[in-house]
């Protein structure tokens, strides 16, 4: 007996997959940006290749995320999450530390991402 699924099942699955692709895109972009510092002005081939591959991978994932989410929402979430992720990875890899004002700014970015996610503009 063939099992049928309601349309909501496929919509929910598409949204979940879009979020997974978005998060993968954010990670690829963030790692690429962190590797950019190691290129030393694109004079070091391995880190430079990582940057190019990371950006390409990020855009491939973001293109998949846009199948189930609006373009503006994907871009806003991607940018906000990438800013915070790059900042955290820079602190981890390069021991770059920010002052309290910068961390408050990161908190505001994170809150903005949450607000976008909860907004009506996020409906599909």
TrEMBL record:
Residues spanning the membrane: 12-36, 42-62, 74-94, 100-118
Organism for this UniProt entry: Shewanella canadensis
UniProt entry keywords in alphabetical sequence: Cell membrane, Membrane, Transmembrane, Transmembrane helix, Transport
Presence of the UniProt keyword Transmembrane helix in the record: yes
UniProt entry tagged with the keyword Transmembrane: yes
GO molecular-function terms, A-Z: amino-acid betaine transmembrane transporter activity; antiporter activity; choline transmembrane transporter activity
Localization (cell): Cell membrane
Broad class of the protein's primary localization: membrane
InterPro entries reported for this sequence: EmrE-like, Small_drug/metabolite_transptr, Small_multidrug_res
Protein name in UniProt: Multidrug efflux SMR transporter
Family in the record: Belongs to the drug/metabolite transporter (DMT) superfamily. Small multidrug resistance (SMR) (TC 2.A.7.1) family.
Membrane topology (UniProt): Multi-pass membrane protein
GO biological process, one term: glycine betaine transport
């Amino acid at each position: 007996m063939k099992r049928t699924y309601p349309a909501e099942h496929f919509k929910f699955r598409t949204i979940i997959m879009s979020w997974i692709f978005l998060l993968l895109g954010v990670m690829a972009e963030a790692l690429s940006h962190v590797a950019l510092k190691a290129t030393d002005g694109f004079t070091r081939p391995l880190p430079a290749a990582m940057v190019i591959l990371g950006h390409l991978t990020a855009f491939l994932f973001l293109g998949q995320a846009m199948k189930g989410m609006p373009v503006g929402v994907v871009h806003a979430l991607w940018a906000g999450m990438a800013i915070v992720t790059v900042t955290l990875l820079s602190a981890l890899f390069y021991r770059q530390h920010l002052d309290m004002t910068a961390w408050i700014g990161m908190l505001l970015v994170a809150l903005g991402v949450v607000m976008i996610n909860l907004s009506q503009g996020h409906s599909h």
